[in-house]
Amino acid sequence: MKKFLKLSSLSLGFVWLLFSCVSNEKLIYMQQLEESTGPLIESSQKYPYQTEEYLLQVNDIVEVNIKTTDERLNLVFSAANNDTQNQAMMGGNQGSGDAFFMNGYTLDDEGMVEIPLIGKVKFVGLTTEEAKKVVEKEVSKIINPGEFFIRVRLGGIRFSALGEFNQSGKYTILQNRVTILEAIAYAGDLSRVAKRDEVYLVRQYPDGSQIHKINLLDRELLGSEYYFLKPNDMIYAEPMKVREIGAGNNLVETLTLLTTSITAVALILTLIKN
């Protein structure tokens, strides 16, 4: 039994030495290498972006900014935005991103938004540029052309990350364009046991939802329509089979777990015999 315990201890020590020692040459950035062939190792081909204009949907939140030469009208148009922002700030647990996102108008079940002095206008099925033109048409009825400025935009890209993420949750990135890789990085990256070749992307469309299975290991992703996220996308990552047997996340953890278990069993047997 003593020999068995010694063998287990030696095995554990060997595993630790084997995987814990990493040369500094593998860690230090921007070294002056003796034999340098240049910093570039490989360049891939260029993958043209495949983007589609996003069409506004029910429950989307848009920012409608109207500025005029009349300060009194500016106060009226900005009142709704300020009220919404104050409500978001008073709600607690709301970050600055959420406050900015909530500083706008929500499309109701009919795809309409209600703007002061203008009334209800229909945004559903339109791009932000088309929605801007709709607002311009209505504003021109009460303000002379050339005396106002209008901007319509989405308040960031909102998405959900579920499953094998290091920090799963619901996020809003304050950018007009976000890639799926940026979104994954924003959620703390995928865990080591996540299936990177089978990631599910649930996307909302005007006529319903659709599930797409994405292979993150394929470079062709950069030129696909799934490279850029759309508002309200959901990313779900399943675990590999290794998660089902309760092993470690990598070889070191698995070997350490196995060695520790064998040592513990041997120790218990020794105590029982004594």
Rg calc? 28 Å
**Which percent range fits the helix content?**
25-40%
Category from helices, strands and their pairing: alpha+beta
User: How many DSSP E strands?
Assistant: 10
Shape field = elongated
Total DSSP helices: 6
How do the strands of the widest beta sheet line up side by side?
7-6-10-8-9
Beta-strand share of residues: 15-25%
- pLDDT below 50 for ≥5 consecutive residues: which ranges? 84-97
How does the major sheet shape up? 5 strands, mixed
Distance between the termini: 12 Å
- In N-to-C order, the SSE pattern is HEHHEEEHEEEHEEEH
Q: Averaging pLDDT over every residue, what do you get?
A: 80
Q: How does this model look, in words?
A:
This protein is an alpha+beta fold and 274 residues long. The chain has helices spanning 2-20, 71-90, 96-102, 128-139, 180-186, 251-273, and strands at 61-68, 105-106, 112-115, 119-122, 148-154, 157-163, 169-173, 194-205, 208-214, 233-239. α1 (2-20) runs antiparallel to α6 (251-273) and α2 packs across α3. The longest helix has 23 residues, at 251-273. Mean pLDDT is 80; it is low at 84-97.
